[in-house]
Amino acid sequence: MTESIPSGWVDAHCHLTDDRLWNNLDSILRECEQVGIQRWVLAGYSPQDWARQKVLREKYNTRIVASFGLHPWWVCTQTEQSIDKALADLESQLTEISLLGETGLDAFGPRKDFLALQERAFLAQLSLAQKANKPLVLHVVRTHEKAISMLDAHAPVRGWVHSYSGTVSEVRRYLDLGLCISLGGSVLGMQPGKLKQLVESIPQDRLLIETDAPDQRPRLPELAQETLNHPRNLIRIAHAIADFSGKDPIRLLDNSRINIERVLA
Ligand SMILES: [Zn+2]
User: Fold this and answer.
1) 3-class SS string, 27-96
2) What is the mean pLDDT of each run of 10 residues along the chain (265 residues)?
3) Pick from 88, 131, 223, 257: most CB atoms within 10 A?
4) pTM beyond 0.90
């Protein structure tokens, strides 16, 4: 018998395995369900994170979508040897996952000093995704040109660029590669006209909505006192993006769910 897929809204990107959420997860997920969120696409960080994802997959079934990968931030803290060991671990677990990531390149601040190491890990993960035909969860910060050329060399690619807040011309290049674009709280810091332009540049069958919880707390006055980004904020993020761009928030969330399911199918 195949397991049924929940019909509620889906968070396209969150880190439920993070220590800041892990110990209260039952009540956190209940709070999400109260506002209509029933499924969570996790984003891989490190081998320790993958082990926790497996626990959640076991416990919550199809409500959890597993994605294992080596996050660029983790890669920056490692040696070539420890990365190679983790890549071998990843290769042995490809049958367990729906997506591969998050992976990519991050040139923000001191991380740009580790770009050679990041490119090495990204390249290896692109090859693994290609070999296993897995969609990608991409993290790209301040190095879109390089990431796009590496993705292009592995085309066709599937998946999405998470928490996108770059330019409209780069959106077009990701769309041309066949990728979706996921927007989260980070875009709410953009100048409103720019945000509207960005949302309009993404066709409705390519646009996803995410929280990246517990990080990237949306800059909304009603959340100013909160210390972390609760995954139930998915609805608030959709409403705020819709307000700025003249869209219907419910349609944004419905389309996001449909698009995620299409990529995962
Ligand atoms: Zn993330």
Assistant:
1) HHHHHHHHCCEEEEEECCCCHHHHHHHHHHHHHHHHHEECEECCCHHHHCCCCHHHHHHHHHHHHHCHHH
2) 80 98 97 97 98 97 97 98 98 96 96 97 98 97 96 96 94 97 94 94 98 93 92 97 95 98 97
3) 257
4) yes
DSSP conformational letter for 189: G
Give the residue carrying structure tokens 């770009």: 115
Instruction: Identify residue 99 by its one-letter amino acid code.
Output: L
| CA of 1 relative to ligand 1 center, distance in Å | 32
Burial class (CB in 10 A: 0-12, 13-18, 19+), 196: middle
Of the candidates 241, 249, 256, which has an alpha carbon nearest to the alpha carbon of residue 184? 241
> What sign does the dihedral 204-259-145-15 (CA atoms) show?
positive
Separation of CA 104 and ligand 1 centre (Å): 11
CA 71–ligand 1 middle distance (angstroms): 8
Coil, strand or helix: which one is 245? helix
- Asked whether 257 and 9 are in contact (CB, 8 A), the reply is yes
As given in the structure block, the two tokens for residue 183 are 């927007």
Residue 137 host element (H or E): strand 136-141
CA angle 164–175–75, rounded 5-degree value: 50
∠199-200-204 over CA atoms, to 5°?
80
Using DSSP, state whether 16 is helix, strand or coil.
Answer: coil
Q: How far is the CA of 238 from the centre of ligand 1 (A)?
A: 18
Nearest to 103 by CA among 80, 134, 61: 134
CA of 53 to the centre of ligand 1 (A): 14
Rounded CA separation 5/43 (Å): 19
In angstroms, rounded to a whole number, what is the distance separating the alpha carbons of residues 121 and 144?
16
